[in-house]
Write the structure tokens for this entry.
Amino acid sequence: MAQAVRPNAVSLFATDGKPHPLQDTFAAVTVVLGVLAFTTAWFYNLHLISSWAGLVGILTGAYGQFISATTRERFLLILGLGASAVGFFLGMAHGGLFGGVVGG
């Protein structure tokens, strides 16, 4: 009987044993933008940073999910997407993307 060969899952990002630099970059950028958006969303005057970082984090996370190759990448992307979405929505509630700069 043949034994199934399991890939060595030692790598932090590529659990299939292959390098994924583009996917890892999208995951890292999404997590950083998510943390930035989530953190700045709790301060009323930083709504421009939180709303823009959240919007860009949502877009990079969505594209990262589209091209992701491993479960670990998808896990990090979902965490970043969630934090970006919370930051984006709180930033929108506090003043939005332009917040008085455009449109008075």
